[in-house]
Amino acid sequence: MDFTDPANPFEIAYFDRGPIDPKVLVLGGDWSAYWYNGYIYGSEIARGLDVFQLTPTKFLTQNEIDAAKTVLVAELNVQNQQKIEWPAKLVVAKAYVDQLSRSQALPASQIAELQKAIQSAEKSHMSKSKTAKLKSMVPSLEKSAAIAKTPADSMRMHALADVLKHPSA
Length: 169
Description:
Oligomer: single chain
Radius of gyration: 19 Å
Low-confidence stretches: none
């Protein structure tokens, strides 16, 4: 499920092994599934552990998957509900741009300009002039965030602006 916009969650992936026995009712199915350091772990009642990796779809880009993999934790206790802090990395910026593109929150020309500037900064190994270009895009993003159609898009624009202020490779 994608809960980026809590008012409008939607399914991005689905998995079910199917019945253990098609003729006899047998207890089975997943107890739970958790994201942990780039993988999804599903605990199945009768058949054990399933381990998955996401692949890009129309609902999820490779940039978003790569950004998610930047969040690493030493241990996972889902009862703690740890707060995730996104690093100010360009891969995270690319994920935000993909999300803003998918929601059509920014004009296509601005999306293309952001993508080009991020790619140039990466190729230059974060040269001073290319990171300055990224920083110069922040005021426009913040202005757009103030008039965004949805709170989720506004949050993404502010988060993208924060990454572009102090980007790292």
